[in-house]
Task: structure prediction
Amino acid sequence: MNFTDLAHPAEEVAPKLLGAVLTHETPEGAVSITITETEAYSGSADPASHAYRGRTPRNAVMFGPAGHLYVYRSHGLHWCANIVTGADGIATAVLIRAGRVVEGEELARERRGGKVESARLARGPGNFCQALGITAEHNGTDLLTGASVTLSAGEPVPAALVRVGPRVGVSKAHDWQHRFFLAGDPTVSAYRLSPRAK
Result:
């Protein structure tokens, strides 16, 4: 995975991130998670995007360059991680919704809770960040330059396994087909239509 792979609109990059691996190296050990579900957010063209109304201190990382991590707090409870994509200055990003822990499962389970089954360790964007140990301090991390959090290509995913559907839980542009996931994978989160959907 390199800058060229990511320097495209979010809806083009999102399906290509399936099968890619995010790794976080910490003093406690490393956790690696293969991405199984993503959602694309297209900046000023997308009413559901944090960047729809322009640049703010919160969303500044979304404006590039590509390959950086945009981390935000959801509902005051959970951290969510996005991979910034597209051309520098244009705010697009891919939310990482779910994944499969492929290294460091014991550490991921310790972070999530000892009785969580393997398929649920990184199911849902908040659980993904918790299992990987991602918090606000990782906002702006360059995933391509060997920082503690890195993105690698992983194993190629056959196109026949990729499914497309509406985004989960957003109230605006909820019917946009910008969610991408692996068919039949138990780590993929369940679809839920927001009760505030318009």
